[in-house]
From TrEMBL:
UniProt xrefs under InterPro entries: Chitinase_II/V-like_cat, Chitinase_insertion_sf, GH, Glyco_hydro18_cat, SH3-like_bac-type
Top-rank taxon, per record: Bacteria
Protein name: Glycosyl hydrolase family 18
Comp. bias regions, Low complexity: 478-490, 497-509
Length: 610
């Protein structure tokens, strides 16, 4: 038995030893740092020799640059998203544009030359390369007009970009150590860090600290391997240009004058006779008339001369709504067509000697937003060169009109007008005010987030809507939605086109206020002038009731079984809006439209706009 027991004991001891060795090996494996070095091309996710990794402000971008014949190029979308959204790429005519305060810079695809207005300049490589998807812009050309620094490195190809200026935290390595992809000793090594090598500290942890090296490699170092932190400051050598504007030394008291035919120009004397304090008038003289940027004109020198004799400036309006056959998108997205449109407007301004241009482009789609803003930029340069005031009309801000980019408008245009009306319009599915005081206040407040107060003009209505609710026989199986039509013959509803467009966008976004409940009436409305509203109130012996919520009188009455509702625009409602103008120290006010107001309204206006 003893002889048999010895081998068993030896075997058991061997097993124990093996297990110990295995456990020890496991422990050693667990606590032994990995020596695996990660391939940096894989780290930056580079798939080809032309690919260039982009490290922006200590973050690795998904987007990649291109290395073409020794020059780094960045794609247009990356440029606009991260470096400078003022660059504009015309994919129709393969032309890159950049607008400064005084010049239009242009470069054709594959050309080594570029123009600063009419002066030619050149680089030793193409400024922009294009393919079917996008444009790629040379990084050294971008730097001429943008506030960033860059460093190009190879093995692998990468560019370190900096746009964030100010203080940042650094620390030296106390000893030789490794920079790993993640916080853990088993994570692959990205770089070996020498003693005293300085790194930028991004996130501090108890065990591992996230850092960035001067070579644009971002990873983790053991916290105990780092020395004391210090603060350093990054500064930019970029000198931002100053934009100037034509500013009037008086509060703007402007009114739009709707002109639908040449004969209407002869009414200017009688129209102005009933006003007080107007110092700017905006006749609706011009509109896009074809897809090449040509315009229809109703301008009159006699009209301008008469206004000038009365000390009134003329800011002629150009619209895109009158000719339904015109594709505004086509005009705005081609540089040659935009240029033609701008030249036509400037030529008319010089020919007729008017003082300003008022742009009223409505019902645009978000896809044309960048091109519309480029139009404003380019027009502003030629207006400034000729002493012409440029003002731009805008809806009240909303998510689906953000592409109008009011901040960029304000940078280039002299004035921005917020059209604080058409809260409810011909296509609305419920009755309501055209401009309640809450709507006006919110519109002004949100516009002021993008536009300085001394450039903002508040647009206000001289009209109201008469709403009618006609009972429907519920036995007829009528549709549960209300129906709205417009029976107006007073030419007050031009802005309803844009409002309907905004409503369509609202519904597409799922934010429409459509009633879910069954309506036992059809809803109709028409817009009319202040005088007609007062006649309706008197004729129907209606009793106006002041609404603090709406900042105006509300009227409701019945006639032949039909319920009528009116949110009245008059001196009282206008005064509430003028208080918003005064409280926010806005540049002035404008009114749609002349001829719809009661003459007495001007006494209220001049109390707030001197």
């Amino acid at each position: 038995m003893k002889k048999k027991f010895v081998p068993i004991l030896a075997a058991g001891a061997l097993i124990v030893v093996i297990i110990c060795f295995m456990l020890l090996g496991s422990i050693i494996e667990k606590y032994t740092p990995s020596k695996e070095h990660m391939n940096l091309s894989d780290y930056y996710n580079l798939s080809g020799e032309q690919d260039v990794a982009l490290i922006l402000d200590n973050q690795i971008l998904d987007a990649k640059g291109k290395l073409l014949n020794g020059t780094v190029y960045l794609d247009y979308e990356t440029v606009c998203s991260y470096l400078n959204d003022r660059f504009y790429w015309d994919h129709n005519e393969n032309k890159l544009l950049y607008t400064t305060a005084t010049d239009l810079i242009s470069a054709d695809a594959d050309s080594t030359s570029y123009y600063v207005t009419k002066d030619s300049h050149s680089l030793d490589h193409p400024i922009v390369k294009a393919d079917a998807q996008t444009a790629y812009i040379a990084i050294d050309f971008l730097k001429l007009y943008s506030d960033f620094s860059y460093e190009v490195l190879d093995s692998p190809n990468r560019v370190i970009l900096t746009t964030a200026w100010g203080d940042y935290i650094t620390a030296p390595a106390k000893q030789k150590t490794q920079l790993r992809q993640k916080g853990g000793i088993k994570s692959p090594i990205l770089a070996d860090i020498g003693k005293n090598t300085e790194v930028t500290v991004l996130e501090t942890g108890d065990t591992w600290t996230k850092v960035s090296t001067a070579e644009g490699i971002i990873g983790y170092i053991k916290s105990k391997a780092l020395g004391a932190t210090s603060t350093k400051t990054l500064t930019s050598d970029y000198v931002a240009e100053e934009f100037t504007h034509i500013k009037k030394d008086f509060k703007i008291n402007m009114a739009w004058h709707q002109i639908t035919n040449a004969d209407a120009n002869t009414t200017i004397a009688s129209v102005l006779q009933n006003t007080k304090g107007i110092n700017v008038i905006s006749p609706t003289w011009f509109y896009l008339n074809d897809n090449n940027g040509n315009i229809a004109s109703l301008a009159s020198s006699d009209y301008v001369n008469y206004c000038h004799q009365k000390g009134i400036e003329v800011w002629a309006l150009v619209s895109n709504l009158e000719n339904k056959d015109v594709d505004t998108t086509s005009v705005l997205t081609y540089t040659s067509k935009r240029e033609n449109l701008i030249n036509n407007l400037i030529s008319a301004a010089i020919q007729y000697n008017f003082d300003g241009i008022n742009v009223d482009f409505e019902a645009l789609s978000s896809e044309v937003g960048d091109s519309y803003i480029q139009f404003i930029r380019e027009l502003s340069l030629k207006c400034a060169n000729n002493g012409i005031v440029l003002s731009v009309d805008d809806y009240v801000p909303s998510s689906f009109t953000a592409f109008y980019n009011r901040a960029e408008q304000a940078t280039f245009a002299d004035y921005v007008v917020v059209m604080a009306y058409d809260e409810h319009y011909a296509g609305s599915e419920e009755a309501g005010s055209v401009a309640s005081i809450g709507f006006v206040k919110e519109g002004v407040a949100n516009t002021l987030k993008e536009v300085p107060a001394d450039q903002l003009i508040l647009g206000m209505p001289f009209y109201a809507r008469v709403w009618s609710e006609t009972p429907v026989d519920d036995t007829t199986g009528a549709d549960s939605t209300t129906q709205t039509s417009d029976n107006n013959n007073n030419d007050t509803d031009e802005t309803d086109n844009a409002a309907a467009d905004a409503q369509a966008a609202d519904e597409a976004a799922g934010t429409s206020d459509s009633a879910d409940s069954y309506q036992l009436f059809t809803l109709d409305s028409y817009a009319t002038n202040m005088s007609e509203i007062q006649k309706l109130i008197s004729t129907n012996a209606a009793e106006p009731v002041w609404s603090d919520i709406d900042g105006q009188y509300y009227v409701q009455y019945e006639n032949n079984g039909i319920t009528y509702k009116i949110w009245v625009e008059d001196a009282a409602s206008l005064e509430e809006k003028l208080k918003v103008l005064q409280e926010n120290q806005l540049a002035g006010g404008s009114f749609w439209k002349l001829g719809l107001e009661l003459p007495s309204i001007w006494d209220t206006i001049i109390k707030y706009i001197n």
